[in-house]
Every structure is written in C-alpha cells, then in structure tokens.
Amino acid sequence: MSVTCEKANGAVFCRGESMQPLFRPGDRILFDPCRIEELRPGDVILFTPPGEKERVVHRIVSKGSGGIRTKGDANPYLDAWVLRQEDIIGRAECLERDGKFTPVAGGLTGRVLSTFIRALRKSDHLASHVLNPCYRGLARSGLFRMLLPSSLRPRVIVFERDGTREMQLVLGKRIIGRRTAGAGVWTIRRPFRIFVDEQALP
Fold first, then answer.
1. Do 74 and 19 form a contact (C-beta atoms < 8 A)?
2. Do 168 and 178 contact (CB within 8 A), yes or no?
3. What residues does 166 pair with on adjacent strands?
4. Which of 104, 145, 173, 180 is the most buried (most CB within 10 A)?
5. CA–CA separation, 62 vs 82, rounded Å?
6. Cα 197 to the chain's mean position, in Å?
7. Residue 77: CB partners within 8 Å, gap ≥ 6?
8. Whole-model pTM?
9. SS3 labels along 41-54
10. 3-state DSSP: the chain helix, strand, coil percent, rounded to 5?
C-alpha cells in the first residue's frame, strides 16, 4: 500500500461508469478532506452537486474565482454544476480493487491521463462504427457460444448494495455485463457479447 493510500481517511464505493476506465463499479475509492485552495485541474474529487443528494466522483477540468468545473472521464460533456467549498467532500487519493491499492493520479498527470482516455475513446468509437455490423452479426450467429465449453459460459450473479438490486454477468473472474435496478436492458462489454445468449438472460 502506498503512503498516499495510508493517509486517506474516508472511502466510498464506485457505483457508476462515468469515470471508467480509471474506476469500475465496485471499486473502493479512498479520499482525504481538502480545501478548495489545495485543488488543481486534473485532481479527482468527491462532492455533492448543488441541490443534489447523491455524491459524485469526477475530475476537475477548470478552477477559477467562480468555482470548480468537473467532468467524468467517460462523459462527453462538462458537468452542469459549478462547485464551491461547501460542495466538496474530499480529493480521491487511491482506489482499492481486488485487494490491491493504486494511487489516483491528479494535477498535471491526471490531466494527461484524462486527455489520453478521451483520445482512446474517440478511436474506439470510430473503430466501433466500422466494425459494429460484423460484431453484431457474430453475436447473433451464436458461433462463439457453441465453441465455448459449458463450464466456461457466462453466469448471472444477483446482489444488493445500499438497498439497490443489481445483476452482473460474469465470465470466469471478469464482470462482462450489468443490469441495474430499473434498467430495461443489459449492458455488455465488447467483445463479450459474442459469448452471451441475450434472449436467455433474466
């Protein structure tokens, strides 16, 4: 465990996907309370948006006399709110995943990382646009499902967290899909859809 992680004195669990691939649902995010003067663009912070009740973990995009603007690494647009000291709970210091602790990059390193993530998503979007018809055709054909041994086929796990019911689709040790409470459809990560019989999912 790093020194940074040892100093963190608060923690929350990640539930959304707006900060992927940095955070995944189920990750434990450790944070430290901080003053707004200590924060820099590129830092990842935990806050409660003005007028809202649910806490959010996003990256600082800009900081000025009017306040702080944030954005999720996986989101295409800036958040609508402007944050002030009373909205900020703390700065993310590290994440815990599968018992391993990793420091969360902030400042200039965090800005470079978020720029790289955006570029990666743009290239992925372009590739998806070109290859998506082939991918969907393979998924519908069921060819890869038939080749996969029954012992390795995806399984559904149902659990509750904070009073919310969620279903996860697991292939080996990897979570490849989710269906949260109220969601009408499954979200399945590429390229794992080719191994899933979506008609058989609950």
1. yes
2. yes
3. 159, 180
4. 104
5. 10
6. 25
7. 71
8. 0.60
9. CCCEEEECCCCCCC
10. 30, 35, 35
Encoded amino acid at 184, one letter: G
Domains of the chain: 3-114 (2.10.109.10), 142-202 (no CATH)
99-126 tens-digit pLDDT: 889 898 888 888 888 888 777 776 666 5
Instruction: Report residue 177 as tokens.
Output: 């899909």
What does the pLDDT look like over 30-62, one tens digit per residue? Answer: 999 999 999 999 999 999 999 888 889 999 999
Do 194 and 136 touch, CB atoms closer than 8 A? no
Span 117-144, average pLDDT: 67
Q: Which amino acid is at 145?
A: R
Query: Which of these, 117, 91, 119, lies nearest to 22 by C-alpha position?
Result: 117
Strand intervals (E) in the chain: 10-13, 28-32, 44-47, 56-64, 67-71, 88-97, 100-103, 155-161, 164-171, 174-180, 187-188
What is the arithmetic mean of pLDDT over 22-35?
A: 89
- Residue located via tokens 């720029």: 115
Judge contact between 176 and 200, C-beta under 8 A: no
Q: How many CB atoms lie within 10 A of CB 54?
A: 8
